[in-house]
Amino acid sequence: MKHCIPLIIAASLASLFVGCSKRPAHGALTSSASIVIEPGVSIQSGMTIQQVVAELGEPNRTNDSALEYLNLGFSVVPSKEGVVQIVMCVNKAGRFTKAFDGHTKEGIGIGSSRADVINAYGEPTATGSMNSEPGFEVLKYRPLGLMFEIRDGKVYTILASFKSTP
Description:
- By secondary structure, the protein is mainly β.
- The chain is built from two helices and ten strands, in the order βαβββββαββββ.
């Protein structure tokens, strides 16, 4: 059974939908392996944090800026109005205890190569670097609301952006 989460990059890139079926009736997700990031399906932008918790279960940790699902490798960042603004799927490095194991419907996940991203999505609408670290690059797909952080030629972070709703 597929599960879903909305994923995001930076605020206000584009409206985006992420698809999935409901979480299992027995409780919260225990693995992100079956999560498919699929723009244009099921859950609309504008989902509230309460709806995220109802769909995915309680997060492992919350702070002023995010719900952190450490066991699944992603974080949900709301707007100040409490609406999902950003979901960030990450490698296990840093504050996450587990890497995100899901993927886009095109098969792109953490650890996919830069070439795989380009083959799946074409040339990005923008590229850049968020820091001066060698081997670090950002590929932005603004019409899709997707962004991939690349480190040493591999996807390190996947972000999806939702247009903020008043």
